[in-house]
Structures are given as C-alpha cells and as structure tokens.
Design a protein that fits this description.
Blueprint (H helix, E strand, L loop, with lengths): L17 E5 L2 E5 L4 E5 L2 H15 L5
Antiparallel strand pairs: 1-2, 2-3
Length: 60
C-alpha cells in the first residue's frame, strides 16, 4: 500500500545550512555565504535564517 503525501515528488534540493564555533564565536555557512562571528548559537541561527529569507525573497 502506498500512502499519498502532500510533499512534491522531486523537491528542489537545498544543502543543509551548517554552524560551527571557534575561539571568535559562532559562524554559519551556506552554499554562498559565511557569516559571523556571533556570541551565541541562537544569534547565529537567527542571523542565518534572516540571511536565507532575504536571499530567497521572503523578506525585503
């Protein structure tokens, strides 16, 4: 039995965004940008999300 889902059959692949920390602070990197340093991981994640939303046209 095959269950039908609402997901598109072949969604556009977007690489997972990543975070890392060093002696300067938290950093994020995507396929086209590295941003940081940030004081906390939460600040870094928020900045990364804002960057992605601006890049994809969700925010202006």
């Amino acid at each position: 039995m095959h269950l039908k889902t609402d997901k598109p059959r072949n969604p556009l692949f977007k690489p997972q965004d990543r975070y890392f920390v060093n002696e300067q602070g938290w950093w994020f990197y995507t396929v086209d940008k590295i941003g940081g340093p940030f004081k906390t991981k939460a600040d870094c994640v928020d900045a990364c999300r804002r960057y992605i939303q601006r890049r994809d046209g969700v925010l202006t």
